[in-house]
Amino acid sequence: MQRNWRTPAGFARDFGLIVAVMLFYFLLRALPPERPELAARVTRELIAFERAVHIFVEPGWQSAALEHRFSRHLADTLHPYLHFPVLALAGVMAWFHSRRAFELTRDTLFISMVLGLAFYFLLPAAPPRLMAHLGYDYGFVDTIFGGGARFAYVQPGFYVNDYAAVPSFH
């Protein structure tokens, strides 16, 4: 018979493990040396592929969104301030829904972290918002850190790796 996992101690154990693994992940994610030349090349090749198959539409979408002040402010607010709370809420909801749903959510998170780290170390990619800073302007506007940014978006140094863009986990 499976013991009752829906206890405060079970919750603390399950989420304590997730927090510990996520902290370890962020520390590892910040380790890859910045290789802007390689990261820019990888992103240029991805954009060339997207253009070749006619799916390079993000600059147009961003341009359309930037025409509307409300959508820009909404996106600039949602991205930095809701990413982790929504992720945590999904985990809590899965935990209360069923053990199987929680374990699937947790395991998917852990597997995606391992895959992401492999890409970050082996094949860094510059986020499109940084391409203009690297000499390749594809029409993207950096609304978080660039000119006209609405918020002071502070990230601790151990968390930052500008070339951990692909895969993006948000």
What does this protein structure show overall?
By secondary structure, the protein is mostly helical. Helices cover 59% and strands 0% of the residues. It is built from five helices and no strands. The protein has helices at 8-29, 36-52, 58-66, 69-97, 99-122. Helix 1 (8-29) runs parallel beside helix 5 (99-122) and helix 4 (69-97) crosses helix 5. The longest helix is centred in the middle third of the chain and has 29 residues, at 69-97. It is globular. The model has no long low-confidence stretch (mean pLDDT 84).
Which helices and strands appear, and what pairs or packs with what?
Elements lengths: L7 H22 L6 H17 L5 H9 L2 H29 L1 H24 L48
Number of strands: 0
Helix count? 5
Portion of residues in beta strands equals under 5%
**Structural class by sheet pairing and helices:** mainly alpha
Low-confidence stretches: none
Q: What is the overall shape?
A: globular
User: Helix proportion of residues, in percent?
Assistant: 55-70%
